[in-house]
Amino acid sequence: MSEKKGKEEKTKKGFGNLSRRDFLKDAGLVIGGTTVGSMAFTSGAQAQHKSEADKTSETLAQCSEDTITIELTVNGGKYRLRVEPNWSLRQLLRDETGLTSPKDWCGGVGACGSCTVIMNGRPVLSCLTLACECDGAVIETAEGIAKEKHPIIDSYIKWNAFQCGYCTPGFVTSAKALLDRNPDPTEADVRDALGGNLCRCGTYQQHPKAVLEAAQVLKGAKS
Question: Percentage of the chain surpassing pLDDT 90?
Answer without folding.
Answer: 68
